[in-house]
Amino acid sequence: MSSKKGAVIKQASFLMAAGLLCRVIGLLYRSPLNGIIGEAGSGYYSYANDWYSILLLISAYSIPTAVSKVMSERLALKRYRDAQKVFRASLIYVLLVGGVTSILCYVLAPFLLKNATGAVLALRVLAPTILLSGLLGVMRGYFQAQNTMLPTAISQIGEQIINAIVSITAAYFFTRSVTGEDLIGQMGAAGGTLGTGAGVVTALVFMCFVYAINRKKIQKRMLRDVSYKEDSYKDIFKVILLMVTPIIISTCVYNVSVVINQSIYTSMSIRNGLTEKAAAEAYSAFSYYCNPILNIPIAMGSAMATAIIPAVSTHYALGEKKEVVNRIDECIKFTMFIAIPATIGLAVLSRPVIHLLYPSADASFAGSVMSIGAISVVFSCFASVTNGILQGIGKPKLPVIHSAIALVFDVIFMFLFMWLGLGVYGVMIVTVLYTLIVCILNAMSLRNLLNYRMKLRKGYLYPVLSAAGMGVLVAAIYWIPSLLLPDVMGRYVISAAITAAAVIVGVLVYMILYLKISKMPPEEIKKLPMGTKILRVARMLHLV
Predict the structure, then answer these.
(1) What Å distances lie between residue 98 and 45, 129, 424, CA to CA?
(2) CA-CA to 163 of 20 to 30 Å: which in 52, 225, 381, 489?
(3) Which is it for the CA torsion 33, 36, 38, 43, positive or negative?
(4) Of the candidates 372, 471, 490, which has an alpha carbon nearest to the alpha carbon of residue 422?
């Protein structure tokens, strides 16, 4: 049983490692891309990506979740032919919905971006990627349903590498023949978004290759299917629609707040006297600089949510509610183990991290924005995991309701903060409040449905105490020299070296404090990423 419990963490670890590497690559290529397309181009790039994300959510983003849940239920009951039918029906669904959405994205781009016309070309370049992402999502969901996250993890890394290379190259060539900061920004943003499509194509080719390798094994398993009941395609399409629709609405409502906040911010900023270009440049501090950094630990929470859905669905379908609760405890504990120190670390080192990754950016302004948004890491991770749990136990409508309630408060506070003149700070504060509301509502639903009560000491108190000690030491390592020797710390190489040292020391101190405070047993340490190596070092230091 312990090996089964560790399987969820192990599969999530694959996705977390891939997500971490992908986010790091994303951060590294954004700096040279920003140097090519400028601040205005970064703003246009963010505007186009925000709308692309929403349209992708509507058409295909939730397909991996739906495919993995519906297929895992049938695989648990050894109905292999029905599981394969789900896969084929999902491909047909994506071709129809994704194709239509791609066309609408291209045609309606000027209307969607009427307050940011410089981003229209970039959004049109992204239009075909919506269909391709849907097909990729079906392939990833197919393997996730079988608790195999490695193909997804490898494809994500390849996707991001190609994305980075093509984005920089295309942006460079797109801007060579144009002049004027605004036109360079428009063409550069379009070149940057071209990399997104190239990355998706690469990942899709890889997943098709993996499927082809496993095709004979899949066919043999279907021949062993002795179930007496077989669903028709009509029934399967109905199940997919009933599963996909609530998840789509949930994820769409959960993420549409980004576009709504962007629209309110842009329109009210222009009304308050800013030009479209100035508003885009200020917005880039939130969307282009801060969000990609905050999304690194948030991606780990999303990876855990992806890994837990098929596991929860399987145990719930078999009536093993105790095992469902055990999975929830395990996943929330592991998620908070990562999210809480990430929150404190990013809050303390926001300014030097921005300066390290984006030397040309206004590190003081963007850093203060990120310090506010750091708390959203914990809330977003918890919301992602609990959304996955609710979807896994067959309650996909609840995340929809919770996200809709949070969205109402989001809009009210967004108008209020913009009226008070908070600008980009208001956008970040609203983002934090939105995720907090979703967390509270999800936790209440889990208590009502599964009588689940969070284990505050093991899940939250231990990482908070350990991260607090880490935060004090990390702050001392960077900010004491910064205050005493401002001229020396103003040099990029020295600041970068001390920032990197502070991060490394912070990770080591957190692990030492956590092992001492929590008294984590060896079998649980082994479940962590590189757990065997951590256990070996912990024994050498007499921490276990």
Answers:
(1) 22, 9, 33
(2) 381
(3) negative
(4) 372
